Amino acid sequence: MMKIKSGFIVRKIADQHMTVPVGERSQELHGMIGLNETGAFLWKLLEEDQTEESLVSALTLDYEVTQDQAKTSVQTFLSRLKDEGVLEDE
């Protein structure tokens, strides 16, 4: 299971979804992370515990993409979040 660490909010700024660290998190991550519509969708899901499989399933249901396309997108997104240090992976 994985989810977004506490201390981050998402704001829409001029047609762009941006993650903003708040409180102590602002000392760990300087700046913001831009998200496209798919990234914002996945981020919202990751506010609660999720598995990679549940994210892939949600993406295939809400977007007209194949299982393989969804899996690639989810893996890329999760990798980015891990690199930025915003993902709790249990």
UniProtKB/TrEMBL annotation:
Pfam families in UniProt: PqqD (PF05402)
Protein name according to UniProt: PqqD family protein
Organism encoding this protein: Catenibacillus scindens
InterPro entries: PQQD, PqqD_sf
